[in-house]
């Protein structure tokens, strides 16, 4: 489990031009240090929509240091570190753009994205930072302040790490964790705990020799849990439907391309309920 990392967040004036940066460093899973600065983006145009979100105007930053002038202070939080951001693709792009703009060397670091991890590990109607903070009960007092968002991102990363660890245990040993984090999450989402426990504790070769593809969101399980159920019962899960796929398990908002491919390939399309019936779980 990654416990040493730096969560960071840029707010931008327009495009990839940063007007503030917040970074929170964690060591051993605890907040260790932080960095926050307003940044003069050296552009005249501030997107009104962006200003409405973060509240930073041209007048607020016109006398602040630019990215290059602040870079020496930023380096200790970035060089050789594990960086975490919510929608990291955007924040990494802002960082790269700023380095290239001022002719600065690209530091060495690894990157993780809490948005991508949350979509993989948790089934929720919204994956906005504020929505995830609310679900995981992370206090958030000033949304779209770069330092506050970096802190919330860091706390979410730790919680998602815990989810991932329990999912690994679940895949290896089934589910027998009366006070597990996964059960807590399931209850918050209104899932049927008894059905979950029966399905996740079921080990056998019921699906041996069969290939599955899963798509959409399910009522009682995350996509990863659905995959675990199939694998621990001898089945194989692949990402794409092909002529050798036996079952496409569909939840809400299943991919239309996968549905069309399954129909043309003669793959049997089943629901979460159908899968549970095959397992004789109800």
Query: Which consecutive residue ranges, at least 5 long each, have pLDDT under 50?
Result: none
CATH H-level homologous superfamily name of the largest domain: Ribonuclease H-like superfamily/Ribonuclease H
Count of the separate structural domains: 2
* Contiguous helical run count: 12
Q: Separation of termini? A: 35 Å
What proportion of the residues is helical, as a percent range? Answer: 40-55%
Instruction: Please compute the radius of gyration using only Cα atoms.
Output: 22 Å
Secondary-structure topology with pairs:
Blueprint: E1 5-14, E2 17-27, E3 30-38, H1 48-54, H2 58-61, H3 67-78, E4 82-85, H4 88-101, E5 110-113, H5 114-121, H6 129-135, H7 146-173, H8 181-188, H9 193-200, E6 211-215, H10 223-232, E7 236-237, E8 247-250, H11 256-265, E9 268-271, H12 272-278
């Amino acid at each position: 489990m990654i416990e040493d990392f730096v969560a960071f967040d840029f707010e931008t004036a327009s495009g990839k031009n940063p007007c503030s940066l917040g970074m929170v460093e964690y060591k051993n899973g605890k907040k260790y240090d932080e960095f926050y600065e307003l940044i003069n983006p050296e552009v005249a145009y501030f997107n009104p929509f962006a200003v409405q979100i973060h509240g930073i105007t041209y007048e607020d930053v016109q006398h602040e240091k630019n990215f290059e002038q602040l870079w020496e202070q930023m380096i200790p939080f970035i060089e050789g570190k594990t960086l975490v951001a919510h929608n990291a693709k955007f924040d990494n792009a802002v960082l790269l753009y700023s380095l290239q703009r001022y002719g600065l060397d690209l530091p060495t670091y690894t990157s993780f994205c809490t948005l991508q991890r949350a979509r993989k590990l948790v089934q929720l109607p919204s994956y906005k930072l504020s929505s995830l903070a609310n679900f995981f009960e992370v206090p958030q007092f000033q949304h779209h302040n770069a330092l506050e968002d970096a802190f919330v991102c860091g706390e979410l990363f730790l919680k998602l790490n815990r989810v991932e660890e329990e999912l690994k245990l679940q895949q290896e040993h089934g589910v027998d964790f009366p006070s597990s984090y996964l059960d807590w999450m399931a209850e918050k989402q209104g899932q049927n705990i008894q059905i979950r426990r029966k399905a996740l504790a079921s080990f056998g070769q019921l699906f041996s020799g069969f290939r599955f593809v899963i798509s959409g969101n399910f009522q009682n399980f995350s996509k990863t849990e659905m995959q675990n159920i199939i694998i621990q019962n001898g089945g194989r899960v692949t990402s794409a439907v092909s002529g050798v796929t036996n079952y496409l398990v569909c939840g809400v908002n299943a991919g239309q391309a996968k549905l069309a491919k399954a129909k043309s390939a003669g793959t049997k399309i089943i629901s979460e309920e159908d899968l549970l019936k095959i397992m004789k779980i109800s």
